[in-house]
Amino acid sequence: MDQPSRLLLLVDVAELGSFSEAAKRRELDRSVVSKHIARLEQELGVRLLNRSTRSLSLTQAGQAMVQQGRELRDWMYHTQALAENLQQLPSGRLKVSAPGILGRCLGFEAMRRFRQHYPDVQVDLQLEERRVDVIGEGYDLVLRVGDLKDSNLVASPLAPNHLLIGASPAFIERHGEPRDLATLARLPALTFSSQQFQLDYLPYLDDQGREQKLPLNSQVRTSEAEVIKRGVMEGMGIGVLPAFAMYNEVSDGRILPLMTDLALPEFGVITLLYPHREMPLRTRRFIEILREMVGSPPQWEARIPGFAEMYGKGTGGMGLAS
């Protein structure tokens, strides 16, 4: 490992807060990371880190070197992007992250189409619920739904995210179709629950257009949207999921939309995040394929009969009394 590589390793240690986490990212032993940082301190002639048994902090010199390392990392990224953009066809490795539900609905098909057009690019598609470190972990593109907290990333909206309340025909035959919020709240529900996020309620707009939350009668909680969808189709209960997760089942009648006169707020935006505006050609081509797939309005909303008029979208949003 040369000195620039050790400087980039110092950036990992600083951003992750420990030798152990930096070692995991680099797939190295912790002792190897410690040895390289000590070697960097020796080469530069300054102490970079204050070490104790419980904590690790940067010295003033360390802070300056980490800033230099980040600039080096950015320069290397731009250099790689420039070199690739001079080529006629994308090449290299494309690393993409998406939440499981979104990755299964969009990521696989986008990857398939992309590989058909650009076989010289190796695609690394990671489906995970955690908020990844886009820059530190080397992601070219991240798909997210909801609020964004990474102010240092470039964000571009892909599509609005609207919820859909659904149940199977058999469930409705047994329980009847709910006509008010009180009835809906009593019905057994399958809800999404993970360490990062819970959707055990229904967000809706009241008669004054104010956002409210209706607690759902959660009988099954799971971190897998596919389990919710399968349970809804099997008649286990109602489900509240993004429209992109259920449009196939709704369009063919296996899941029926419920209480479509109820006004629901937009549930965040599906957003593309990338580390720099000057992106490699492979990333630009992948984004082009994603946008073509999704369309405007999103193809999953267009495939649900009458969806443009459901849940208050066609009327400007009307609340429903409980």
TrEMBL record:
<dbReference type="InterPro" id="IPR036390">
    <property type="entry name" value="WH_DNA-bd_sf"/>
</dbReference>
<dbReference type="GO" id="GO:0006351">
    <property type="term" value="P:DNA-templated transcription"/>
</dbReference>
<dbReference type="InterPro" id="IPR036388">
    <property type="entry name" value="WH-like_DNA-bd_sf"/>
</dbReference>
<keyword id="KW-0805">Transcription regulation</keyword>
<keyword id="KW-0804">Transcription</keyword>
<comment type="similarity">
    <text>Belongs to the LysR transcriptional regulatory family.</text>
</comment>
<dbReference type="InterPro" id="IPR000847">
    <property type="entry name" value="LysR_HTH_N"/>
</dbReference>
<dbReference type="InterPro" id="IPR005119">
    <property type="entry name" value="LysR_subst-bd"/>
</dbReference>
<feature type="domain" description="HTH lysR-type">
    <location>
        <begin position="1"/>
        <end position="59"/>
    </location>
</feature>
<dbReference type="GO" id="GO:0043565">
    <property type="term" value="F:sequence-specific DNA binding"/>
</dbReference>
<protein>
    <submittedName>
        <fullName>LysR family transcriptional regulator</fullName>
    </submittedName>
</protein>
<dbReference type="InterPro" id="IPR058163">
    <property type="entry name" value="LysR-type_TF_proteobact-type"/>
</dbReference>
<dbReference type="Pfam" id="PF00126">
    <property type="entry name" value="HTH_1"/>
</dbReference>
<dbReference type="Pfam" id="PF03466">
    <property type="entry name" value="LysR_substrate"/>
</dbReference>
<keyword id="KW-0238">DNA-binding</keyword>
<dbReference type="GO" id="GO:0003700">
    <property type="term" value="F:DNA-binding transcription factor activity"/>
</dbReference>
